[in-house]
Structures are given as structure tokens and as C-alpha cells.
Amino acid sequence: MLKKSNLRMTRQRKVILEELQKVDTHPSADEVYAMVRHRLPRISLGTVYRNLEILSESGVIQKLEPGCSLKRFDGNPSDHTHIRCVSCDRVVDAAMTPDLEIDFEQVNSTDFKIIGHRLEFFGLCPQCAEKSNPAEMQA
Amino acid sequence: MLKKSNLRMTRQRKVILEELQKVDTHPSADEVYAMVRHRLPRISLGTVYRNLEILSESGVIQKLEPGCSLKRFDGNPSDHTHIRCVSCDRVVDAAMTPDLEIDFEQVNSTDFKIIGHRLEFFGLCPQCAEKSNPAEMQA
DNA sequence: TTTGCTGCAAATCCTTTGCAGAGGT
DNA sequence: ACCTCTGCAAAGGATTTGCAGCAAA
Predict the structure, then answer these.
(1) Considering its fold, how many domains does chain B have in total?
(2) Which domain covers residue B52, as residue numbers?
């Protein structure tokens, strides 16, 4: 289940995973901490962070907003598409924005009022592609 | 040019905007700070942050990664689409993920090696839609 | 002259990390 | 027994904010 074989399924890790799988609210680390504390009152926030990281690296859960350690700014305010390097976080403009023709009714089963969407590509910039061994490439 | 009429075009604000419009590198606040300091050595990082915020609110520039004040986690690791409330940052799952059929060749004029893409919807959740006066709705 | 803006520094928020001891396997 | 994991607390990085003086309008 966990990708790296030298990982241990500790009580804390198990409870974090179980609690996260119970809900569909996409909680933040802090919210997971609050959820887990009902069952493990002495768990630390650091442990929650460490385990969320490990579980998402292992593919058991997923982390939303992958490449956003810091915000970036674009002098061009018009709507266009970006390509982000997953390795160095560099951002470039895409040549064009594909026309999606999305049927909101179909996508949205919720009672959210949809205002728009954002499409982002991710990949490897030439410098990072060169650095990373092609044999062990991981997105 | 600036949306709120009581805003002033100070030297600092002007230089920040000019420098940002010069480049297509999508710099972070810190990088903008470094760029601007060549012309205004005594400018402070706080001023850069304040102005980037004001300029993007005014629509003169844009902030990438709009809704990502903190990371969120999903117990479901499978690939699916999310809808985020622009007001309270809450995230729900979309009913389905539209099939995009994107021609990477066409989108990508760069030498990035594209690995994948991410589509996210944004909108207003029922609670926030109710709170916000429909007459002055701002996305 | 008004009042929004600045530089400075401290505060805040989220996240990561060092350490010594605890606990999976 | 080995070695990963934990709780704790301190450090870290990015961003925000309070304040008194400055400068657009």
C-alpha cells in the first residue's frame, strides 16, 4: 500500500488516513489535525504534516495545489494559459489556450455557482529535463 | 487604470508595474522586489507585497495560483476535478471531469516537456453566494 | 490640505526540522 | 534489535500589519 517498503504503518499514520478517507471536505493540514485529535489527543501537528506528505508521496491520498510554494505575478492581466515546471517551479506562457466548450451543468452536480475555470499544464523545463535521469523520471 | 478611484499612482507603484510588464518570467514577490530595487534601492518588501496585491485586485496584473492560501488534502487519490469557492476557499468534487482532447503540440510552443494538465473550476458556494450582494458580486 | 502611501520592524501564518526517546516490524 | 517514527519546541519562509512620517492629489 505504501510505496517505499521501509515505511511503517503506525497508529498515527493509520488514523490520519482513515479520518481523511471518511470525509469529502478536502481538509487542510490543520483541519486534519483537529479531526485526528479526537482519537489521538496527544498527536502533534508536525506528525500530521509529515504523514500527509508521506501518504501523498505514496499515492494513497492526494495533495491539492501541488506547485504553489509561493505566489507568482504576471504583468499580462489577460486570460491565458501557463505551463509550470514541476521540478523548479518556473512558469512560462502556453502558445494558446485550448477552447474547452465545457457543459457546466454536466460537470457541476453541486449547488456551487460556477464563475469560471482554470487550466494549467505541468511538465519539465529543458534545464530540469536534462538534469533528471530519463530512466527514473517521476511526475 | 486603477479600479478604485482613491488609489494613487506613486513612484513605487509605477516602477513595480513597469518592471513586471517588462518580463515574461512570472516572478514571485521576492523577485519583483529584487528587480525594483535597481531603480528604487530604498523600497521595502512590504511595499512590494502591498502593491502587487493592489495591482492584481485592480486587474492591471494577475496573481497566479489565486486560491492557495494553504494546501488541502484529498483522501481520494484518483484523478478527478475540483470546484473551489473563491470566497471561503472550500473545495468540493465536480460530478465529472470533462474530456479535453488537448493537442499538446498546438498549446506548447516552448521546449517544456509536458507531463499533464490540471483543470479546476472556481465559483461561489451556496453560503457565500447568499452572503454576497448579487449587485456587487466580484470574482 | 487631505489622506493614501511608504519604510521599517515586529507579528503572523503555515510548514519544516532537530532531537532524544518510543514503538513498529 | 534495528531503525523509522513520534512529540515537542524551535526555526524557517512567505506574507501581513502597526505606526509615524512622507508625498500624491
Answers:
(1) 2
(2) 1-63
Measured CA to CA, the distance from residue A17 to residue B119 in angstroms comes to 25
Q: Is the CB of A6 under 7 A from strand D?
A: yes
Q: What is the pLDDT of residues A86-116, one digit of tens each?
A: 777 788 888 777 777 777 666 666 778 888 8
Give the nearest partner residue to B24 out of A17, A93, A106, using CB atoms. A93
Q: For the whole model, what pTM was predicted?
A: 0.80
- A64 and B74 within 8 Å at the Cβ level: the answer is yes
Task: Please calculate the CA angle A91-B57-B52 and round it to the nearest 5 degrees.
Answer: 55
B122 touches strand D (CB under 7 A): no
Distance separating the N- and C-terminal Cα atoms of chain A: 19
Smallest CA–C1' separation from A70, nucleotide: D14
- Shared domain check, A59 and A84: no
Q: What angle do CA A45, A50, A54 make, to 5 degrees?
A: 145
The domain that contains A85 carries what CATH number? 3.30.1490.190
pLDDT in tens, B46-105: 999 999 999 998 989 988 876 556 677 787 777 888 888 877 778 888 877 777 777 766
Distance CA A16, CA A85 (A): 30
